[in-house]
Amino acid sequence: MTMPRSASVLTAAGLAAGLLFTTPGVARASWHLAGSGAALAKAGRMPIVHGVTADATGSSVRVDWPAAEVRTGRPVAGYRVVRYAAGTDTAAVVGDGCSGTLAATGCTETGVPDGTWQYAVRAVQGSWTGAPSARSAVSVHTAVTPGTGATTFPVSGRKYGPNSWARTCPGICGTATASSGSTLTGVRVSLRRADGGYWNGSAFAATTEQFVTVTGSLDTWEIAFPFSNFPPADSDYTVRVVASDSGNRSSESTSTFTVDAKRPEPGGVRTANAATGTIGTIDAGDSFTLTYSETIDPASILSRFNGSPIAVKVEMTQQSGNSPDVLRVLDGTTALPIGSMVLGARGYLQSSSQTVNASMSYSATDGLRITFTASAPRNGQSQPTLRSALSWTAAEGGTDLHGNHVVAATVSEPGNPHLQF
Question: Which DSSP state fits 405?
Fold first, then answer.
């Protein structure tokens, strides 16, 4: 319907003044009784707002427009901001800062989702609303705080053995966070040996990356992984953590650590005769030394032992028949977890068994040295004449600095057979 631009109205009650507005296809009017006589009503369209601008900062969009007037000198009562997804005519819900009817000619909408949007403004006068303005496009790319996936144990760059593994968690533990505005949906963890493959649940044998199932909550995850899963060798390992969230984002991290799983072995044994001693007899100052393939922990042999000289006893036993004499080191009456030394011949003792005072010390360079501080009584017994090689059968009780137990094995004194001590 095409509305007239003006109309005259004469009422029975008298002169009425009014305003008549139209929007496309619709005419609206209001009247106010002012007196009697002829009334002239002029109809006009609701103004359209022009010059709308929109600028994004993070997830906030600033929208500005110039004032619109019902007629010259008379601005409209308010404005309503409309937001559309780019390329559509479907209006989105306008958020805080620009919602409702606004009296100002600008506003800032906060929390706008990422995407390309188009803003329009409509003039408002009472219950009347003008047509939308031309749209102003803006792209919103919110700065997202990325999520994280990290390993808290083992710590990258550190070395671990049986004594230090799984002390703060069941094996491998870590944390994860989602990117801002999202929630965690999964955590995946893989473990790879530097000179081997990926852990496949039973061995480091997979040639492609395999992920291990985590337990606990996703933000503080853990994996049960006993030290016995590692092969008995020293090697580097890499943990890779991949965390994913509901925003279809993922984050990852890697950490590399070293495992000392190689057990120390007996390296050698030798005897030494004191400068003033008699060869073939056990005199004060005589000694025997045990060496290992790597540094051992003195406290694993005796809790109060730190490597400095400490008093011990050496038990010497004659074996039956023609079996050679055997030595063991004691703390009081308790045998230390060192093992036993076989002299290779008989005749070093005056009786079937006797104990002699000694001193024990240790250093990584010199090994474990036991020095007799008294002579073994002989009571006229002739010294042995059979030349032999000393052997040492190590016990598993001692450990290296990382807690790997000594391998129970036998080593012999190098060189030609000779009288001991």
Answer: B
Euclidean distance between CA atoms 75 and 66, whole angstroms:
10
Same domain flag for 187 and 229? yes
State residue 228 phi and psi, 5-degree precision: -65, -15
pLDDT digits (tens, 9 = 90+) for 130-175: 999 999 999 888 777 889 999 999 999 999 999 999 988 999 999 9
The number of CA neighbours under 13 Å toward the Cβ of 190 is 19
**How many domains is the chain built from?**
4
Q: Are residues 239 and 289 in the same domain?
A: no
Q: What is the pLDDT of residues 352-405, one digit of tens each?
A: 678 889 999 999 988 999 898 877 665 444 555 556 678 999 999 899 999 999
Residue 421: inside a domain, yes or no?
A: no
270 and 325 fall within a common domain? yes
185 phi-psi bin (left φ>0, alpha ψ -120 to 50, beta other): alpha
What distance lies between CA 213 and its chain's CA centroid?
15
From CA 115, how far away is CA 129, in angstroms rounded?
28
Distance CA 42, CA 4 (A): 8
Cα 273 versus chain centre, distance:
56
The position carrying tokens 């060496």 is 291
Task: Tell me: do 202 and 185 sit in the same domain.
Answer: yes
Instruction: Determine if the pTM surpasses 0.85.
Output: no
145: which strand partners? none
